[in-house]
Each structure stands twice: as structure tokens, then as C-alpha cells.
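Q: Please design a sequence for this.
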């Protein structure tokens, strides 16, 4: 099904593309609201989910869904305290796909996310909860 052009829809897409934060729907809404005062949070959610289903965006699962405009395989890191998500500069290893294929699987997609504490949260010692972090 082809979606008709919508200025709001395109601005939502552009806002995700412009962000390196892997934004949530709320983050996109907050960014675009001054420019598009008639925009609703529901419209943002619907459009993000629909663009993810169409393959224009990648929807990242978690407590709160985040969206990524980078569609090629890559790795993420997520902060266990604040929820921040960032790309992690690791080379893609096609051997992972090959290992699954040896078991008869045909890989359609993958997701690799490391978890830890981001630099901002690591500097905030007031919020320590006994997390175990590898060094």
C-alpha cells in the first residue's frame, strides 16, 4: 500500500534521520511541535510504526520503542540508567549470519545491542544501584 504524501509524515521521517539519539516518538513530537503546532503524539506514533513496517525506519524494541534511520546492520549500546541509545562502532561480522545458516536458518535481520552505563550517567555517582559493569 502506497502512503500518500504528508508534510507531517515527511518531517517526522526527516527528524529521525537528523537525530543520532535513536529518538522515541515523544522526542520526535517534542522536536516538531513548535514547527507543526497541529501535530499530535498519536500521529507521530502511527507514522513511526508505519514507516518501520514499510522498511523506511528500524524500530528498536525496549521499554520505550526507539527509531533508527540507519537500515544496514550495525550495533547499538543502551544505557541501563537513562535509556540513551547510541551506535557502537564495531565492524559487521557476516560470519554470524553464516553460523546461523549452518543450522538451516535463513537470516532476514538481526539486532545486537550491548547494555551498560553511558558517560553522562557514569559521572553521576548519586544514582548508583549496584550495577555490575565489565571493564
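A: Design:
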Amino acid at each position: 500500500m502506497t502512503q500518500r504524501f504528508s508534510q507531517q509524515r515527511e518531517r517526522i521521517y526527516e527528524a529521525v534521520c537528523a537525530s543520532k539519539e535513536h529518538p522515541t516518538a515523544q522526542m520526535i513530537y517534542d522536536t516538531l511541535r513548535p514547527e507543526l503546532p497541529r501535530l499530535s503524539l498519536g500521529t507521530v506514533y502511527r507514522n513511526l510504526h508505519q514507516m518501520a513496517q514499510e522498511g523506511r525506519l528500524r524500530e528498536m524494541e525496549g521499554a520505550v520503542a526507539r527509531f533508527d534511520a540507519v537500515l544496514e546492520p550495525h550495533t547499538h549500546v543502551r544505557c541501563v540508567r537513562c535509556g540513551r541509545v547510541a551506535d557502537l562502532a564495531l565492524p559487521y561480522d557476516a560470519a554470524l549470519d553464516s553460523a546461523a545458516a549452518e543450522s538451516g536458518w535463513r537470516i532476514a535481520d538481526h539486532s545486537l545491542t550491548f547494555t551498560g552505563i553511558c558517560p553522562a550517567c557514569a559521572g553521576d555517582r548519586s544514582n548508583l544501584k549496584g550495577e555490575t559493569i565489565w571493564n
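Q: Thanks. Anything notable?
A: The CA atoms of residues 12 and 32 lie 8 Å apart. The first helix runs from residue 7 to 18.
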